[in-house]
Amino acid sequence: MTGPILDIRSLTKHFPVKRGERHFWARARQSWLHAVDSVDFSIGPGETVGLVGESGCGKSTLVRLVARLLDPSGGSIGFNGKEIGGIPARKFARLAQRSGIQMVFQDAGESLNPRFTAFQAIADPLRRLSQRRGAELAARVREAAGLAGLPDELLGRFPHQLSGGQKARVGIARAVALEPRLLILDEPTAALDVSVQVVILQLLETLKRRLGMSYLFVSHDLNVVRLLCDHVLVMYLGKIIESGPVGAVFDNPAHPYTKALVAAIPSLDQRGTRRLRLGGEPRSPIDPDPSTCRFYGRCPKGQNSCATVMPELRPFDAGRSVACHYPEVVIPAETATAA
Prior knowledge:
By secondary structure, the chain is an alpha/beta fold. It has helices at 59-66, 89-92, 108-111, 118-129, 134-147, 164-176, 194-211, 222-228, 246-251, 256-263, 304-308, 333-338, and strands spanning 6-19, 29-43, 48-52, 74-79, 82-83, 101-104, 182-186, 214-218, 231-236, 239-245, 314-315, 321-322. An eight-stranded mixed beta sheet has the order 6-7-8-3-9-10-12-11, with helices on both faces. It has a four-stranded antiparallel beta sheet with strand order 2-1-4-5. The chain is globular, with a radius of gyration of 22 Å.
C-alpha cells in the first residue's frame, strides 16, 4: 500500500446541548457544541503525527473519533484504503478492522480493569479480535509483554500492585499485541514521573521502528512532539489552524496561535526572549459564528476581515498549511544576510 494509512476528510463532531431556562410553555433552545469541525489530515506509513493545542480544543474528541470510540457527525475516516467512519462504533468494536487501530490512554491505571491481572488485560483484546486461544494466546501475551519491557513475573499482578511505569507498559503491550498499523497515543506519559516518561518515550520510539507502526501522538509537551514527531497538527477550538513538518512549524510558526504556543516552550536559555501573551478569552465552542475566525478577539494581528470571513486551511510553504488571513512571513536567515 502506497497511500496514507489514515485519511481524514471534513471530520466533524457536534454534541447537542440545551441553552436557556426550560418552562412548561417553551422548550429550551437546542444548541450544538462544535468539538471537532471539518478537520482534514492524513498519516502515512511509518509516520508519527503530533496533535497539539490547549485543553478543551478538541484533541481528545478527535482521537476518539479516529479510534472509532465515538461516531462522527459528518465527514469520512479512511483507514487502509477503506471508509470506516460510517460504521457505528459499537459494530466496529467487533470487526477485524478494530485490531488495526489501537490506542494507549492518558492514564494507564484508569484504563485498566482493576479485576484483571496484567496477563488478562493484554489477553482480553486478543480473545475478542483474534483466533488465538490456549497456548497460542498465552505465547502472544508474553511476546507483547516482552516487546513492552514487562517481565513475565509481573503478568500475574493486578493494577494496584504495579508502579505507574509498569501500568503504562501493560497499556502499551495490550495495544501492540494485536499488531496494529496505527497506534493512537493520548498523552501516554502525562501521569508519570519525568524519569519514567523518558524511558516510556524511548520504548515507543523503538516499537515504532521495530513494528513499522504509524503514530498519532497527542501531547501538551511541545519539546516531546518536536523530538518524536515528523509532522504536527495545531488545533484550536475544534479546527486545525496550522499543519506541517515539525521543524518548519516550530522554527517559523505562521499562525499567531502557533507562535504563542511555541513561545511558551520552556527553555534553559531565556535571555533576550519574551513570552508572547494572548489577550482575551477563547470564544465559546457552542454555536460558533461560521463567518468569524475562531481566534478572533485574541489574535494580535486581527483585522475586520477576520470577523467576517472564516479563514480556510490552505497551503502555505515547505509542505505547510495555515488557516489565517495574515500568516507570519519569515525571511530566511541567508536571505536577510544577503539583503
